[in-house]
Inverse folding.
């Protein structure tokens, strides 16, 4: 099905930068098995350890492989974001709903506050 030119398309067969947040600890040595994504972990009294994976994946198939590997390790998925330069993907507002986020900013997660 063709989309109108005014709608932006996100190809699934091309590289993309992503940030993935999971509840729990993931060792940095797992990076190679997770598409080479950079792994950082922070901890807070309220949330416990939160691991952030970020970097470029080859395509949606590789992203799916990363997500499946996290699932197999029983890590709770908190967020997946597609990044554009220094900016995050923003969901468009619709007539029926306004998209809201109940996630903390990543700077808060990284600082452990």
């Amino acid at each position: 099905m063709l989309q109108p030119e005014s709608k932006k398309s996100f190809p699934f067969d091309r590289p993309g930068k992503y940030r993935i947040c999971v509840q729990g600890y993931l060792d940095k040595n797992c990076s190679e098995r997770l598409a080479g994504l950079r792994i950082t972990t922070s901890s807070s009294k309220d949330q416990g350890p939160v691991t952030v994976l970020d970097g470029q994946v080859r395509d949606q198939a590789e992203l799916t492989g990363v997500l499946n590997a996290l699932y197999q390790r029983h890590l709770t998925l908190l967020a997946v974001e597609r990044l554009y330069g220094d900016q995050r993907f923003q969901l468009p507002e619709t007539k029926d709903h306004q998209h809201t986020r109940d996630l903390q900013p990543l700077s808060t997660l990284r600082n452990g506050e």
Observations:
- Confidence is low (pLDDT under 50) at residues 97-113.
- Residues 60-72 form the longest helix (13 residues).
